[in-house]
């Protein structure tokens, strides 16, 4: 018997199936720029529609504080329609009259997306009345959002305890693939953690340093460490109030024998925009009116040298603001290097995260990696050995 109930165990005909998916996709000017997370949920949607269920998709987008139309899921629902090749309805709220009347109009085999769950404070609080309001809209709950499973929210955890709960196809395959690739990784293991979600990913590094041999800290995360070590980072993305936590992580790494690699140079600019005037500087030379938007070429060379000694790579979070040229250079260079080594058979590589996957696609190498997960933070917490609330709630 498997650890979870799956869609194979469910009677789906004519049922209202609440499916938690991750529609937190990269977007620019109202357009989805990477559809990996949409493609990942197609098998679950099709399994349910083929069996005559009504698919009610629940998801968050961004981190709004209350209702905020700029964080609406409406354009994502449109993009999903394109991927699915069939009509996808949309309801302007995920609870209440707007949701229930739209769902009541669904015929068997039809699909609807409900508006951003994070428009309601009860979502992140996992508030019982909000869980109740969501549960009243469905007969069955399916979680297909491995990438949001590290959040104990109403739609990722609370609902699984309220309705008959099943793992979706993507949830199943993510857990199986990560277990196969990383349950007993060949050492040395090199991890790259970068990106912009500094506060939500910094603390997990304290445990990660006990699991990996080399930790390359990149992106906005690196700026926070550089500042904690007394370097001036100007206007860079940086969480100065996390300096103590950053220093504690460096101590933990030392105690665990994990080598920490920080950028030695940076590409800096005065404006956060594509093709902004920029210069390459050492990390001691960032001006007060400048911001670090990418790692420099010397850092890329250091990472290449560290990769020479690694057998397994895990990666979440880009080296820079890769959506804007030329600040994609370090991310693209390291991605191509890892891809090449993986193809040559000298490295096993696992990468994940909404933006990281978009960056690998941008570099044209996602297909070269051993495994690409939809998940970033959730994948790192899984790697830390932490129980993920969204996964735990699904266990039989
Ligand atoms: N130095 C930097 N300054 C500003 N933003 C950065 C910097 N480095 C990386 N980023 C941003 O980090 C974002 C991705 O971070 P994150 O959400 O943590 O990754 P993922 O979605 O892969 O988990 C990208 O939008 C990228 O532009
Ligand atoms: O994009 C996500 O995670 P990721 O940035 O770690 O890939 C998930 O949708 C979780 O979003 P959250 O970090 O706002 O809870």
From TrEMBL:
<dbReference type="InterPro" id="IPR015911">
    <property type="entry name" value="Phosphoglycerate_kinase_CS"/>
</dbReference>
<comment type="similarity">
    <text>Belongs to the phosphoglycerate kinase family.</text>
</comment>
<keyword id="KW-0067">ATP-binding</keyword>
<feature type="binding site">
    <location>
        <begin position="60"/>
        <end position="63"/>
    </location>
    <ligand>
        <name>substrate</name>
    </ligand>
</feature>
<keyword id="KW-0808">Transferase</keyword>
<dbReference type="InterPro" id="IPR001576">
    <property type="entry name" value="Phosphoglycerate_kinase"/>
</dbReference>
<feature type="binding site">
    <location>
        <position position="201"/>
    </location>
    <ligand>
        <name>ATP</name>
    </ligand>
</feature>
<keyword id="KW-0547">Nucleotide-binding</keyword>
<dbReference type="InterPro" id="IPR036043">
    <property type="entry name" value="Phosphoglycerate_kinase_sf"/>
</dbReference>
<protein>
    <recommendedName>
        <fullName>Phosphoglycerate kinase</fullName>
        <ecNumber>2.7.2.3</ecNumber>
    </recommendedName>
</protein>
<dbReference type="Pfam" id="PF00162">
    <property type="entry name" value="PGK"/>
</dbReference>
<feature type="binding site">
    <location>
        <position position="151"/>
    </location>
    <ligand>
        <name>substrate</name>
    </ligand>
</feature>
<dbReference type="InterPro" id="IPR015824">
    <property type="entry name" value="Phosphoglycerate_kinase_N"/>
</dbReference>
<feature type="binding site">
    <location>
        <position position="37"/>
    </location>
    <ligand>
        <name>substrate</name>
    </ligand>
</feature>
<feature type="binding site">
    <location>
        <begin position="22"/>
        <end position="24"/>
    </location>
    <ligand>
        <name>substrate</name>
    </ligand>
</feature>
<feature type="binding site">
    <location>
        <position position="323"/>
    </location>
    <ligand>
        <name>ATP</name>
    </ligand>
</feature>
<feature type="binding site">
    <location>
        <position position="118"/>
    </location>
    <ligand>
        <name>substrate</name>
    </ligand>
</feature>
<keyword id="KW-0418">Kinase</keyword>
<feature type="binding site">
    <location>
        <begin position="353"/>
        <end position="356"/>
    </location>
    <ligand>
        <name>ATP</name>
    </ligand>
</feature>
<dbReference type="GO" id="GO:0004618">
    <property type="term" value="F:phosphoglycerate kinase activity"/>
</dbReference>
<keyword id="KW-0963">Cytoplasm</keyword>
<keyword id="KW-0324">Glycolysis</keyword>
<comment type="subunit">
    <text>Monomer.</text>
</comment>
<comment type="pathway">
    <text>Carbohydrate degradation; glycolysis; pyruvate from D-glyceraldehyde 3-phosphate: step 2/5.</text>
</comment>
């Amino acid at each position: 018997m498997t650890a979870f109930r799956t869609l194979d165990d469910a009677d789906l005909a004519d049922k209202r199936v609440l499916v938690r998916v991750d529609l937190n996709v990269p977007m620019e000017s109202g357009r989805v720029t990477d559809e990996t997370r949409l493609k990942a949920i197609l098998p679950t949607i099709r399994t349910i529609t083929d069996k005559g269920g009504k698919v009610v998709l629940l998801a968050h987008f961004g981190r709004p504080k209350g209702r905020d139309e700029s964080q609406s899921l409406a354009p994502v629902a449109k993009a999903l329609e394109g991927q699915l090749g069939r009509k996808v309805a949309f309801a302007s709220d995920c609870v209440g009259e707007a949701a229930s009347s739209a769902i009541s109009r669904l015929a068997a085999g039809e699909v609807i997306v409900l508006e951003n769950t994070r428009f309601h404070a009860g979502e992140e609080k996992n508030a019982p009345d909000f869980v109740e309001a969501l549960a009243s809209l469905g007969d069955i709950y399916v979680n297909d959002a491995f990438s949001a499973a590290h959040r104990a929210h109403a739609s990722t955890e609370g609902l699984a305890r309220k309705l008959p709960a099943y793992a979706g196809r993507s949830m199943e395959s993510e857990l199986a693939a990560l277990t196969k690739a990383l349950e007993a990784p060949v050492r040395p293991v090199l991890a790259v953690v970068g990106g912009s979600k500094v506060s939500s990913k910094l603390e997990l590094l304290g445990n990660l340093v006990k699991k990996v041999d080399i930790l390359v800290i990149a992106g906005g995360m690196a700026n926070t460490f550089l500042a904690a070590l007394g370097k001036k980072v100007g206007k860079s993305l940086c969480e100065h109030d996390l300096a103590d936590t950053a220093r504690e992580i460096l101590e933990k790494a030392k105690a665990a024998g994990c080598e920490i690699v920080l950028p030695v140079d940076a590409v800096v600019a005065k404006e956060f925009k594509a093709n902004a005037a920029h210069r390459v500087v050492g990390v001691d030379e960032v001006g007060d009116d400048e911001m670090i938007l990418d790692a420099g070429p010397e850092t890329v060379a250091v990472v290449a040298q560290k990769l020479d000694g690694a057998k397994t790579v895990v990666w979440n979070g880009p080296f820079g603001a890769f959506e804007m040229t030329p600040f994609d250079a370090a991310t693209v260079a390291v991605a191509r290097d890892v891809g090449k080594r993986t193809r040559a058979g000298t490295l096993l590589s696992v990468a994940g995260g909404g933006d990281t996957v978009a960056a690998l696609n941008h570099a044209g190498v996602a297909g070269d990696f051993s495994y690409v997960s939809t998940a970033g933070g959730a994948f790192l917490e899984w790697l830390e050995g932490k129980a993920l609330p969204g996964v735990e709630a699904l266990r039989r």
